[in-house]
Design goal:
Helices cover about 75% and strands about 0% of the residues. With about 525 residues, the protein is mainly α. Helix 3 runs antiparallel to helix 6, helix 3 runs parallel beside helix 8 and helix 9 packs across helix 10. The protein has 24 helices and no strands. The relative contact order is 0.09. It comes from Oceanobacillus zhaokaii. This is ABC transporter permease. Keywords: Membrane, Transmembrane, Transmembrane helix.
């Protein structure tokens, strides 16, 4: 009887691998290539004991602990330095990969009618979910093996074979637990958007719990999957217990997802969508009003998450200068500009990364139009007196508004928490200025998405690839010593680092012009092409 529930799993697993092969290839190549290239560069980045000692002092700062996780007692080896700087953010990237792949292969396919079509064939009730789980397990195992084998083959002193395989294994395990969480929410939520939002909310909560716990209370950190990840002590202590706990919890969550899937009706969920009003308001009857209503929960959730993320870093700024006041090498690393405080210089580095994170909901907002088109819903607009220009313009306008909201949320979170802990509180204007300066780069990203919607809707994934490239340039460009031409390819690289640097109106104006050109070209192309379903 139970075998019948899983009948057809093998076929469906192959189907999902084929359906996601390009995304899977890009994710695996990107994660493995970045990991190995950074690992290979570390012996040159930290060539002597002085450089490693400076990093050890850096990690004594609560701000760095909150950002990267608890530090090692001894940073004497290249392996410990590499694991400290790379493990947590790589685990987050792996978690994002799993959330997107599982969400696409479960609830999104159900919304699109694929699951109902498949179930009309002689397949088991749980075969589709089982195929998705097997597909994602194989993906994480392959990722773990590639990273572990790659690091081991590099033969870098301080990166032993056991540590290399622990590094790869904990990344795979971290992916599995967030895959399980997404599979569970795919049963609870009624929409793929709801399932993805809940999964990303758990990821953000896990990061915040780990950040606060690592600084103030280890017990809080230990309830977070990311807290377990940073306690592996890779290349030094090589603790395997976080792997066992992570895999065990992932298994339990996965079993729960199977059970819920077996007892629910197709296209239903256990968390019902809130019933709306009987009559639409005047604002809702406009194109921009409907665009906002479709994404309201998503926008609010991102704003709250970014506010809390900014506040988590603002809460540990009080001790920042105490740790670095007498450390000349760190002061030189932050900036040669002595007119600005070290806190302001650190905020510049932080805001660059936060701006990239804020760009995600901005691009998602405008790409919602492409999603509506894929579901043949835009035809409902065009059956009325709505032009393509006004429809696309509504999504562009909403995306621009979202960019202001997200950056304001980051700045307000950072400032409000910093005021409570700093002797000389950060000025609100400084925080807002450091955040809003990145708006032109965010608009350029949005412009690229609109341009792709216009000329080739199937190629909109390139916008996300370009965003990932921007993160690599900001976070790893200095470490890997990228040539100027590689740095210049990122829109975020051209933004002046206010308040450390003077405002450069020419560069920001050029960025705004590039954004406008992309928007115009995208709009013209959208008007002329056929609507695709």
């Amino acid at each position: 009887m139970y075998r019948q529930l899983f009948k057809g799993t093998g076929y469906l697993t192959k189907l999902m691998i084929r359906q996601n092969r390009l995304k899977l290839f890009l994710w695996l190549i990107g994660l493995v290539a970045v990991t190995l290239s950074v690992a290979a560069a570390y012996p040159d980045i930290y060539p002597n004991e002085e450089a490693r000692a400076a990093f050890s002092l850096t990690m004594a700062n609560p701000a760095m602990i909150a950002m990267l996780g608890v530090g090692y007692d001894d940073f004497a080896t290249i392996g410990s330095l590499f694991a400290q700087e790379m493990l947590l953010f790589t685990a987050i990237a792996v978690a994002i990969m799993n959330i997107l792949l599982v969400g696409r292969s479960t609830r999104a396919d159900e919304e699109d009618g694929r699951v109902e079509l498949i179930r009309s064939l002689p397949v088991g009730r749980l075969a589709y979910l089982n195929g998705a789980i097997i597909f994602i397990v194989l993906t994480n195992v392959l990722l773990a093996v590639l990273i572990a084998a790659g690091i081991s083959l590099l033969g870098i002193e301080g990166m032993d074979t056991e540590g290399a395989f622990l590094y790869g294994t904990i990344l795979g395990a971290s992916g599995l637990i967030f895959a399980g969480i997404t599979a569970l929410f795919a049963q609870l939520a009624e929409t793929s958007r709801g399932a993805s939002m809940l999964s990303f909310a758990v990821l953000i909560a896990a990061y915040l719990a780990r950040a606060i716990g690592d600084v103030s209370s280890e017990a809080l950190s230990l309830i977070s999957p990311l807290g377990w990840t940073v306690r592996t002590g890779v290349f030094v202590e090589n603790n395997w217990w976080p792997v066992y706990i992570t895999v065990a919890i992932a298994f339990i969550i996965g079993i729960s997802a199977y059970y819920l899937n077996s007892i629910r009706d197709i296209e239903s969920g256990f968390i019902p969508e809130r019933k709306g009003s009987i009559h639409a308001s005047g604002f809702l009857q406009t194109t921009i009003g409907l665009a906002f209503r479709l994404q309201r929960t998503n926008i609010i959730s991102w704003a709250i998450g970014l506010f809390l993320l900014g506040a988590s870093f603002g809460a540990i700024l009080g001790d920042f200068e105490t740790y670095f006041a007498d450390l000349e090498i760190i002061q030189a690393f932050l900036s040669d500009n002595t007119d600005q405080s070290m806190t302001e210089q650190f905020i510049v580095l932080l805001m660059a990364i936060m701006a990239l994170i804020s760009t995600v909901p901005v691009v998602m907002t405008v790409l919602k139009l492409k999603s509506e088109e894929n579901k043949n819903l835009t035809e409902n607009y065009f059956s009325r007196s709505v032009s393509r220009t006004s429809l696309l313009g509504s999504y562009i306008t909403l995306s621009i508004v979202v960019s202001f909201i997200m950056q304001a949320a980051v700045a307000l979170g950072l400032w409000s928490a910093g005021v409570l802990v700093m002797d000389e509180p950060l000025a609100l204007g400084t925080a807002l200025g450091a955040a809003f300066i990145y708006l032109p780069a965010m608009w350029a990203m949005m412009g690229l998405a609109v341009f792709l919607i216009g000329i080739s809707p199937k190629a909109t994934g390139l916008a996300w690839l370009y965003m990932i490239y921007g993160f690599i340039v900001i976070y790893l460009g200095g470490i890997l010593e990228f040539p100027d031409w590689m740095n210049n390819l990122s829109a975020f690289h051209h933004i002046p680092q206010v308040p450390v640097e003077d405002m450069d109106y020419l560069r920001t104006s050029i960025m705004v012009m590039i954004s406008a050109i992309l928007l115009v070209l995208g709009s013209l192309s959208y008007r002329r092409r056929d609507i695709q379903g």
